[in-house]
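W.,

You were right to be curious about this one. When I first looked at the sequence I had no strong expectations either way, so I just let the prediction run and decided to look at it fresh. Below is the sequence, 279 residues in total, followed by the output.
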Amino acid sequence: MKTRTADLAGARADYEAALPIYRQIDDRLGEANALTSLGDLKRRIDDLAGPRADYEAALPIYRQIDDRLGEANALTSLGDLKTRTDDLAGARADYTAALAICRQFDARLGEANALTSLGDLKTRTADLTGARADYAALPIYRQIDARLGEANALTSLGDLKTRTADLAGARADYEAALAIYRQIDARLGEANALKSMGDLKTRTDDLAGARADYEAALAIYRQIGARLGEANALRSLGDLKTRTDDLVGARADYEAALPIYRQIDDRLGEANALTSLGD
């Protein structure tokens, strides 16, 4: 509950209190689930070293107790982490292994999540045909009424359509995703969709609309402690202000983003912010 309501400090305290209890009573499944939850929480606040240890501790427990779905979920989480840290080959291996398990046991939600993650990875590596095929996850989410997954898949499809210059299609996907995120109170998803909408509006020269979207996204990222999102929104605002000759404002945004990228060890973001400052 606390994770859903963005009380991340409270959620972490609860998970860390539960973990030794599971260990004391030798509840291996509870232990593995608590480790996975801790990893997910740390990844959300951009502590990328901590989650890997948590996931890698949970994974052998799931395997020892033959919990195949837990194993698949841990593999997907590890894949997400490796994607963030640019180990794309490792991420693809984890997603592919998770997908096989989910299909073997007819775990539709896990299957859809693994497909979406594979699609995002392929979009990143410019395999756009493969990515579109993987976003066949969308009808699965709709069949099982997984609204968050549906919204995430729509956002991913919007990103893909933006890459292929289908800007009208992308806007429709982002707007559909945004409505779902707001209905289910998924603040991070809402912020990400707003950021994507801002990027799209910048591309189509709706600069006032883009600025409003970026500023709305930035406020949410700060409220929920999403540091990477905060830095990316600041850099986008800096780019927008540079384009409109507000050079003082742009510099302030880039200089605010730069230390965040350094704190969370995002080397690409750091390099991009430095380049923007240099320009």
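Here's what jumped out at me. The chain has a mean pLDDT of 94. And, maybe more interesting for your project: Residues 207-224 form the longest helix (18 residues).

Coffee later to discuss?

I.
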